[in-house]
UniProtKB/TrEMBL annotation:
The keyword Amino-acid biosynthesis does not apply. Residues 1-95 form the Reverse transcriptase domain. InterPro entries: RT_dom. Keywords: Endonuclease, Hydrolase, Nuclease. One of its GO terms (molecular function) is endonuclease activity. PROSITE patterns: RT_POL. The keyword Nuclease applies. It comes from Plakobranchus ocellatus. PANTHER family: REVERSE TRANSCRIPTASE DOMAIN-CONTAINING PROTEIN (PTHR47027), REVERSE TRANSCRIPTASE-LIKE PROTEIN WITH RNA-DIRECTED DNA POLYMERASE DOMAIN (PTHR47027:SF20). This is Endonuclease-reverse transcriptase.
Length: 249
């Protein structure tokens, strides 16, 4: 990246700090203020990668624009036009221009699917309720809580989180919706089994606050991005992404 960015001048800045790329392990996000700038960044990175015997996979590299104006310029890698998308998965999370709601809904769906796969455990009468709850929290809630520190919560999302938690507890307790058992009664049975406990929504809030506190006392890029202002007068923002390898993202 050092070689690729040697002559590159980015126009995107946050809090007065130029931001041209975000990197984690072998995943890279290239960020530009307009399509021409993004095309230049891709070209320079493609050239720098070739100098070190590496190749960008056009099939795994995507472009997403944060703009209401339609994209016109074709950006290519190895003669292949890069696909433009409205959402993509980066470091295991779904990134879109709709905020965190699609990612949260995806997490709810994955957790529900895992809940169904573990039906033999929930139906096993030889396993105590307290053991089932520990399994639920270790096997399922860890799926749901991944990267929850970055979520934006609202009333609708909070309602969905509570509903998913109740759905998990009802399945674990063997309660059918036909039984007309209230959520209060479900919570009472869970508390009788394991004692006072923290509900899922509270865990999400605690993790968000913990991450915020950790970021606030630091002096890194995360703090700059979270607290800095974005200059919106420099054209359309573009991004390319990929999941792995030496692909540009």
């Amino acid at each position: 990246m050092t070689d690729a960015l040697e002559d590159h001048r980015g126009t995107v800045s946050i809090g007065g700090r130029p931001i041209t790329n975000l990197r984690f392990a072998d995943d890279i996000d290239g960020i530009a203020g307009n399509e021409c700038e993004l095309a230049s960044l891709v070209e320079q990175l493609d050239k720098a990668s070739s100098n070190f015997g590496m190749e960008i996979s056009a099939a795994k590299t995507k472009i997403m624009a944060n703009s209401k104006e339609p994209s016109k310029k074709e950006i290519k890698v190895n003669g292949q036009i890069l696909e433009r998308v409205t959402k993509f998965k980066y470091l295991g999370s779904i990134i879109t221009d709709e905020g965190s709601k699609p990612e949260i809904l995806s997490r709810i769906a994955r957790t529900t699917a895992a809940l169904t796969k573990l039906k033999p455990i929930w139906n096993n009468k030889n396993i105590s309720i307290s053991s089932k709850i520990r399994l639920l929290r270790s096997l399922l809630m860890s799926i749901f809580l991944y990267a929850c520190e970055s979520w934006t919560l609202n009333a609708d999302i909070e309602r969905r989180i509570r509903a998913m938690e109740m759905r998990c507890y009802r399945r674990l307790l063997g309660i059918s919706y036909k039984d007309h058992t209230t959520n209060e009664e479900v919570s009472r049975r869970i508390e009788n089994a394991i004692g006072p406990h923290v509900d899922l929504l509270t865990i999400v809030r605690q993790r968000k606050l913990k991450w915020y506190g950790h970021t606030t006392i630091s002096s890194g890029l995360a703090k700059t991005i979270m607290q800095g202002n974005v200059n919106r007068g420099r054209g359309n923002a573009g991004m390319t992404t990929s999941e792995n390898g030496q692909d540009l993202s």
